[in-house]
Protein: D-amino-acid dehydrogenase
Amino acid sequence: MHLRPHAMTRHVVIIGAGIVGAVSAIEALRAGLRVTLVEAGPAGGEQAASYGNAGWLSSHSVIAPAEPGLWKKVPGFVLDPLGPLAIRMRYLPQVAPWLMRYLASGWTEARVEKTAHALRALLVDAPALHHDLASAAGVAALIERRGLLHAYPSRSDFEADGLAWRVRHKTGVRWQELQADALHALEPALHPRYQFGVWVGEAGHCRDPGAYVGALVAHACAQGAASICAQATGFRFESGRLRAVRAAGADIGCDAAVIAAGAHSRALAALAGDLLPLETERGYHVIVDAPQMLPERPQLPQLPVMVSDCKAGATPMERGLRIAGQVEIAGLKAAPNWRRAEILRDHLLRIFPGLPAPLPAASLHYWMGHRPSMPDGRPCIGYASASRDVVHAFGHGHIGLASAARTGRLVAQLLSDRTPEIDLAPFDPRRFARPFAP
Ligand SMILES: Cc1cc2nc3c(=O)[nH]c(=O)nc-3n(C[C@H](O)[C@H](O)[C@H](O)COP(=O)(O)OP(=O)(O)OC[C@H]3O[C@@H](n4cnc5c(N)ncnc54)[C@H](O)[C@@H]3O)c2cc1C
Structure:
């Protein structure tokens, strides 16, 4: 067998140990590369979006956030600071160019569909890929493959969501529609006002995304990866080849690097030659600790549920019941607005009437984190302009947990000069170099 000269020994530094960096590390090791992970915080810790997401391995999440006609709602985004999507007034001038691209990307159904096909290729077997990764890391029980539920007050509310389901169907997603009786038989904890449901059987969920990332990184280290706790600040190139990643004032000698720093990837990408419109869509979660231990022993959901009237996902997890959602555009530095998390807490009581009201304060935990979002809802996966030794792997927005499994494989294929297993054109970081049409 002919081995490429560097195939066994190429040393890659992966910047960021969220879900994307963690899976990339495992897949790079599987491809025979030497791996060093550079992470500024704890792997899978609270600083990472990968810690606090809803845990949905939703292989059907192919609809990018912007949809036709969304521009009409922009004044509301700015004027209602507590709406499900809010833009902080002070941040508006800074985010305006990103916002224009965001609206343009969903301007027509054809654009939504194009992105959906691309995302489907990234997501299609996400639950199975994650199950394999979790099994290898000894935490298979964290990945459930029992489907996900979307609940609507009525069939007409589902039909109002018609574009999304129509486009999903075109990409090959299939589901089961549930009338009220079937919906409540499947999920008895749900409020009776939900009279129509959609069960997506192919999807799954993770019962503790932070612990999952921690276990994947521990597995990568057990397989030979090195791990350095430091902030990466730049690169040293010589004649177009990468020689080192700079971190904590020192050079880490290497042959290749992966930028997987989530919402913090923009400055690093610029140093690798690409000025990219990466923005943070801040999101929140609330966990009710082990609600089965509450004195009233409430009836608890068994399946993850997305409810249309609250625009949030509630997921049964190891630690308790988590509800996650909200989109707040306010940049990386602004303080959290915990009122938004309280809204999610109140939604829980509206969705699951068996929970005790008010929920005991001591059982509640609030979190805010940064979705790394490109305006067109598609991540950047590809070589950097400065050198093919640097691979971009960030910008996974609302679907980074689910889509990380295939992203890691693609990263390893790029690092080993193999043909990527799916078409990477829709994820090409250079797509933003072209002017965009509204
Ligand atoms: C409320 C909410 C709900 C969500 N729900 C879902 C869901 O149900 N399903 C789903 O698929 N996705 C969901 N997402 C999105 C998903 O969480 C993210 O897309 C994904 O976690 C991004 O992973 P990442 O590895 O790119 O970034 P992160 O998880 O943010 O990891 C980046 C890591 O890089 C480190 N880092 C940053 N800069 C540096 C540096 N210079 N040097 C070294 N280290 C650095 C950070 O410390 C961090 O650990 C949700 C997100 C939110 C906020």
Q: What stands out?
A: The chain is about 30% helix and 25% strand. The radius of gyration is 21 Å. Residues 1-61+205-278+375-438 form a domain with the FAD/NAD(P)-binding domain fold (CATH 3.50.50.60).
